[in-house]
Amino acid sequence: MSGTVYERLPEDESDFQRDVEWAWQHPEYWSERLRLDVADLVVSELDRLGLSPTELAQRMGISPALVTSMLRGNHDWTLDTLAKAGVVLGIQWLVASAPIDGVASAPAQVTEKLPTIRNENAR
């Protein structure tokens, strides 16, 4: 986890809505949310495939401790580790965005199959 210092609102202002509005204005909230969303998606795929985190680590060529740390949300996923996990799990990562002030209509998703790429030169 990052060494983020969390500010506290004065007691008389710390209702839930204000806390949410405060969080939405800080990148640390969004970073943590993304880290945990990715971990949840990977865990779901591991369950679907019947793989353990240790097997995932072995197939990705990284340490089981690192995979465990990432799945707990304690370590950032790099683009390289996401790509490796995607290949092992047979999924592609899709990126979407939504305005912060609205509810995201499409959270990050995984698909089960990569698209087929046609080679126009091969006939």
Question: Which descriptors would you attach to this protein?
Answer:
two-stranded antiparallel sheet; 434 Repressor (Amino-terminal Domain); 5 helices; elongated; 123 residues; 2 strands; single chain; mainly alpha
Low-confidence stretches: none
What fraction of the residues are assigned to beta strands by DSSP? under 5%
The total count of helices amounts to 5
Q: What is the rounded Rg?
A: 18 Å
> What is the correct CATH architecture?
Orthogonal Bundle
CATH topology: 434 Repressor (Amino-terminal Domain)
Q: How are the strands of the largest sheet arranged?
A: 1-2
The level of helicity is 40-55%
CATH level-4 homologous superfamily? lambda repressor-like DNA-binding domains
Q: How many DSSP-defined strands?
A: 2
The CATH class turns out to be Mainly Alpha
How far is it from the N-terminal to the C-terminal residue, by CA?
51 Å
Tally of domains: 1
Structural class: mainly alpha
Instruction: Write the H/E string, N to C.
Output: HHHHHEE
Shape: elongated
Mean pLDDT: 80
Largest sheet: 2 strands, antiparallel
